[in-house]
Amino acid sequence: MIRQYFSVVFVSFAMGVFLLASPLASPCAASKIMNNPLTPPNTFSPQATLTSYLTHITEAFSLLQEAFVLDLNSDRIFTHTPKVLRLREEANLHFRKAIDCIDLSEVPAVYKKEISKEVVIQLKEVLDRIDLPNLTMVPVVDSSGKTLEKCWRVPKTPIEMTLITEGDRNGEYLFNAETVAKVPELYEMAKRLPYKNHDTEYFFQFYISTPGSLLPPKWFHYIPRWMSAEIYFGETIFQWTMLSLSFLFLIIVTSLVYRFCSKRINPEHPIRSDMYKLALPLILSFLAYTLMHFLENTINLSGATLYYTTGLLDVIKWLSAAWAIVVGGSLAANIFIANPNVNPQSIDASLIRTIAYLFSIFLAICILFYGGSNLGLPLIPIVTGLGVIGLAVSLAAKPTIENIIGGLTLFADRTVRIGEYCAFEDQWGKVLHIGLRSTRIRAGDRTVISIPNAIFSQMQLVNISHRDIYRFSEYLHLRQETTGTQLRWIIAHIREMLVAHPKVLSKYLYRVKLDSYGNYSKVIRVYTFISGDLRWEEYLEVRQDLLFRIAEIIHEAGSDFAYPSQTIYLAKDRGKITPTEQVLMDMERPEQEYPYPNTSDNRYDELLDRMHYPPTSEEDFVGLPLRDKSELDDDENAEVAAGDEDTKNADEAEKKDYRVLRR
């Protein structure tokens, strides 16, 4: 079989013909090209494109033959001689100019380098096996500088050259993208045909069975022949072996790195943990990139094997890069939060984490789109499809989106922060975490409550930690047996205690008053404020201290707290109950004062403002103590002497209004 001995045939053929000039390979043209390597191939007519392509591919093959023979006869073991390297460089230059004659616009970027080489060689193999027309019969540029045809096809083949009308190759004739896509299939159909042009015989067979780019490396000659002579499914045994070892190496290294890093991740050290988390995607991306170039350029995979292997490694590379960006965003946020000026438990830290997470997700999506474009994925249909899917997902995930918006609202309004105490509905607790979807709160009973942000942001929230002072309000229910004297003593001493207490803000308010008579108690209300500089636990300690001191004052007065109860008194009926003589005399009202208890206007005028207030002695609480009229006259004279006529008029008007109101 030719495939079993093509290397021997190639070597023997190369040693016999590499010095012979091909009719299509012009040494003068080649030397001119090497004198000016920047000169592009002539592709401004079908004839010029075909001539340039055949000339450069043939010259590249001729140079590779010479370099291969010299390399075989070289005494060096692992490296090429300078002359071989120079010939290889010249062959690569001709090869790139032959590639410039084909349209690679439809080839994905990740495959463009290797597929272009294969297509150029396969196309030459096909043309060497068919009857090419005379170059004078191929269309050329007319006198006006234009060709008569915009598309020319090699007779009896689907191989076409088309005029490019846009882009940086505008005005050039290239083997079009449809032809490039058909070349592998055409080669499979024509490879069993005999050669009609022997300039590049077995070029493609040699290319796919040897490692390296075009010229195999020196160590190739030390590979056992049985590993490189026979081709199975498009690759030699050596290439299949290296491909298997490469993926095995990738799996082993990834597993070792994962085991090493996962054991060192500690949530208590977020920066160090993120660094270990970042190591795996970075190493995986680097290995995928390195193996992809190793298999393409050193092992020289080809065909479907190259297509799927390169595609898989490229997917791993971009996915790992996106993964690394997400982890890197978390690492950057934690490094920023580690600044002493930022409280790790504050809402600012949560906002930094959220912004870093969203930004890293955005960059990761951009990276994935870029990687997809390199793989040749049609981005416009993908974006359109994602838009439709996004609409469906947004409708289905409406609560989630509402929660995210609610979380951003909490971050923007800063109603509560992490570590602060807040009250909501009938509960209160400490804010543990504010995320994108929910907020976690440690309740007073030490349970953790998770509330969706959409609901939490709409609640009436009371930020306990933000108040500048604490309110102290208590109702003291004392026993019904407590006398007025005891009540006044208790009230006075509670006021004195509040004024003397260093944590009570008595300058704002200290209200201690007899509030009401309850069904079972006499109620005193204590209302004041405690310093807001205290932490919650310290406030509770001060509150407890005040309650203890109030209880001691009540007990010292001989009273006690009342409890909801009913008192049943058992006593012997005393018979007829008669009032005192003073009250009996007072009960005998003149007829003009009836209907009693309606009081006459004169009586009201007599009583108006005559009670002793504030009381000056215990007797002021007994009966109806009135001031003498002389005292009232003195007060009125003092007002007149002071010239306060407005006050007197207001008093008269008030008395008149009072009488009207009473009626």
Automatic annotation (TrEMBL):
Residues 631-644 have a biased composition (Acidic residues). It is found in: Cell membrane. It comes from Halodesulfovibrio spirochaetisodalis. Residues 645-663 have a biased composition (Basic and acidic residues). Residues 486-560 form the Mechanosensitive ion channel MscS C-terminal domain. Residues 400-466 form the Mechanosensitive ion channel MscS domain. Keywords: Cell membrane, Membrane, Transmembrane, Transmembrane helix. Pfam families: MS_channel_2nd (PF00924), MS_channel_3rd (PF21082). It is a multi-pass membrane protein. Residues 614-663 are annotated as: Disordered. Belongs to the MscS (TC 1.A.23) family. One of its GO terms (cellular component) is plasma membrane. The chain crosses the membrane at residues 237-258, 278-295, 315-338, 350-370, 376-397. This is Mechanosensitive ion channel protein MscS. Its main location: membrane. One of its GO terms (molecular function) is mechanosensitive monoatomic ion channel activity. InterPro entries: LSM_dom_sf, MS_channel_C, MscS_beta-dom_sf, MscS_channel_2nd, MscS_channel_C_sf, MscS_channel_TM-2, YnaI-like.
